[in-house]
Amino acid sequence: MTERTLIKNGWIVSMDPTIGDLRRGSLLIEGERIVQIAASIDAPEGCEVIDAEGMIVHPGFVDTHKHLWQTALRGVVADRTLVGYFSDVRRDYLSRYRPEDVYLGTLVGALELIDGGTTSVLDHSHGVVTPDHSVALVEAELNSGIRGVWAYGYCPVEVEGLQAFASHADRVKDAFRIKERYFNSSDSSLLRMGVAITEQNLLPLDLTVNEVQSALDMDAVWTSHTHCGPGNAPITRGFHTLVGKGLVDHRAVLSHCNEFRVDDFDVVRDLGAHFASSPDSEIALGIAQPTPYRDALLAGVQPSLGTDCVTCMSGDMYANMRMALTFSRHQINDGPGSNYETIVDQPVSTRDVFRWATLEGARAIGLESEIGTLAPGKLADIVLVNARSLNLAPVLDPVADLVLHAHAGNVDTVIVNGKVRKRAGKLTDTQIGDLLGRLDDSRDYLLSVAGEMDDAANLTHEAEEWSERLTSLS
Ligand SMILES: [Zn+2]
């Protein structure tokens, strides 16, 4: 018999315009899907009942820009700039990562997301040092039980002057091997294959084109760090070149886009592509100009939200929403012609930002008909937040409460695809103690090799050096 779960007496924030919020409501799950939402539902026989008295019930978050493999190095570049991040994490530490390190980082990172109410992720997985790493990365994410897209990272990684792949074409072949091995079965895995292209201008254009083309050949979501480098280095620039080649459509998720202005976002909108912002890392690391919310919104492009990397920012989506709300308001209110001294309502509402973290994220990864809101027929990715907490009570507006006041520690229950993954504040089926011990070992190993690393000069120099080495190896 199909398993059923009834959530009752919760304050339901559906984010579905026809359902709205139910101050006191019930939600019935059958198997993987939500089948009913109403003020009151009688529990069918043999149904598990979750009493959500005092809880806010909301759709699981969708994180559209994340590098899960970095978890063992939490905070390692807390006081570094983007140049420091690039040279330390992307170049030096990553070249020392073993398959077990990317495995643990990805697994624990994904569990951290589930624990904090994020049920789907677009993992820009650029920890592919060798073919063994690609296997470890994808198996970790499959084992975590998170939904989303695992995007094969093409950026070459050099280990002691050598690469495990003889040519760039071999990396593309490896991506197809992974696709064949893990993503071809018809049993509906929660995870789909995607592609994360190498930052533009680190490789010759024809290789970048090949990378994007591989995603289109797989009919997969592809993602790219887009127009987000500081200074004069061309790294990450070149979006319009890809547009000119007809490579950008609804399958593109463009991260950061810090240099984009309204007319660039007009192109994004017309092509049906998507914008993933990570305001925390973008502002803190000094990625060019900060997140261009004003320009995106003027062009009618809705942002989605990503928590980027725990090496430099929090993985907590509630904290990330707060940053997005605060910064977008500052930018718009302080911008030309805002007249904010004379208007009463904010140009960006808490509900707007909550939608960026849920439905807009779902849209970015092509799953808006399946997740992102709570409605009958949708997959059951659901979060219960304990609002009987000192930082959340009393509730006046549940969305304002979630965006302004909540944190991951308030998450009581998380359901992914109809399955309870967290109950009464604890993940249900995972040996966390054991995993954290192994993660400590991974951290200790990585720190033990850190002494040999060079310091960064500047990003222009770094990018030139990378480009030269990677090109010669391609
Ligand atoms: Zn990133």
CATH topology tier name of the largest domain: TIM Barrel
- Gross CATH architecture of the largest domain: Alpha-Beta Barrel
**Helix residue percentage:** 25-40%
Strand content: 15-25%
Profile the largest sheet: 9 strands, mixed
Determine and state the CATH class of the largest domain.
Answer: Alpha Beta
Number of helices: 15
Q: How many extended strands? A: 17
Low-confidence stretches: none
Labels describing this entry:
37% helix; 474 residues; globular; Urease, subunit C, domain 1; 21% strand
Q: How would you characterize the overall build of this protein?
A:
The protein is α/β, with parallel strands linked by helices and 474 residues long. It has two domains: 4-58 and 380-427, Urease, subunit C, domain 1 (Roll); 61-363, TIM Barrel (Alpha-Beta Barrel), CATH 3.20.20. The protein is 37% helix and 21% strand. The chain is built from 15 helices and 17 strands. The strands form two sheets. Strands 1, 2, 3, 4, 5, 14, 15, 16 and 17 form a nine-stranded mixed β-sheet that branches. A hairpin with a 2-residue loop joins β15 and β16. It is globular and about 65 Å long. It binds zinc ion (ZN). Zinc ion is lined by residues 65, 67, 124, 225, 255, 308. Residues 65, 67, 124, 225, 255, 308 line the site of zinc ion (ZN).
Short note summarizing the structure:
The protein has 474 residues and is α/β, with parallel strands linked by helices. It contains 15 helices and 17 strands.
Strands, helices and their partners?
Layout: E1 4-13, E2 21-30, E3 33-38, E4 48-51, E5 55-59, E6 61-66, H1 82-96, H2 99-115, E7 118-125, H3 131-144, E8 147-153, H4 168-182, E9 191-196, H5 205-218, E10 221-226, H6 239-244, E11 252-256, H7 262-271, E12 274-277, H8 279-285, H9 293-298, E13 303-305, H10 317-333, H11 350-357, H12 359-364, E14 382-386, H13 398-405, E15 411-416, E16 419-423, E17 426-427, H14 432-448, H15 459-473
The structure holds zinc ion.
